[in-house]
Design goal:
The protein is an alpha+beta fold. The chain has helices at residues 33-52, 136-154; strands at residues 7-8, 14-19, 56-61, 75-85, 89-100, 105-118, 131-132. 31% of the residues are buried. It binds coenzyme A.
């Protein structure tokens, strides 16, 4: 198996849980949007680096919509998975949920797509392994990602 052999989507899935402390919160006692964005970026870059086997930089993050807040004492859960591998870039989907550990309640907070570029030792974009598409859902996810990529690159 070479460095650029196709890799499974499941091989790079990344999950994180963050306990919300006062230093993460705004004056309303809920997590800062910027803190959620930082956790999204971290979860996604781990996923991108697991897939590519290279250090990666964030090229773009698509629209973020904050659906429902998460309070101090609750938990922010993040799950990142690759939806498409292009030449040197990858689209990563991140789903964020809030969790009240004492009641078991869970709710969607943010969903977004971010693009990461793998970097060579010379700090230039470098090719990434293709994504091994195993199911119809994987094929549909890749096709949807290609549509989003066209729209996002048209904005540059
Ligand atoms: C992202 C970056 C590496 C692209 O470099 P570049 O010189 O434009 O290189 P290229 O034109 O060859 O593009 C490389 C890849 O980035 C993708 N890309 C570039 N800009 C993009 C954008 N705004 N959104 C999504 N993908 C983008 C290209 O489509 C290409 O992907 P592909 O090889 O899969 O087709 C460069 O713009 C950069 O370093 N940006 C700053 C990154 C940063 O500081 N992030 C925050 C800290 S990690």
């Amino acid at each position: 198996m070479t460095e650029l052999s196709p890799r499974l989507r499941t091989a790079s899935i990344t999950e994180m849980a963050e306990y919300v402390l006062p230093q993460h919160a705004n004056v309303f006692g809920t997590v800062f949007g910027g803190q959620i964005m930082a956790w999204v970026d971290l979860c996604a870059v781990i996923c991108a680096q697991r897939h590519s086997g290279r250090p990666c930089v964030t090229a773009s993050v698509d629209d973020l919509l904050f659906r429902r807040p998460v309070r101090v004492g609750q938990v922010v859960r993040l799950r990142a998975q690759i939806t498409a591998a292009f030449r040197t870039s990858m689209e990563i989907e991140v789903r964020v949920t809030g969790e009240a550990t004492t009641t078991g309640e869970e709710w969607p907070t943010v969903e977004c797509f971010a693009t990461f570029v793998a970097m060579s030792d010379e700090l230039r974009p470098t090719p990434v392994p293709p994504l091994l598409l195993q199911s119809d859902a994987d094929v549909l996810a890749q096709a949807a990602a290609e549509g989003r990529r066209r729209a996002r690159l048209a904005k540059r």
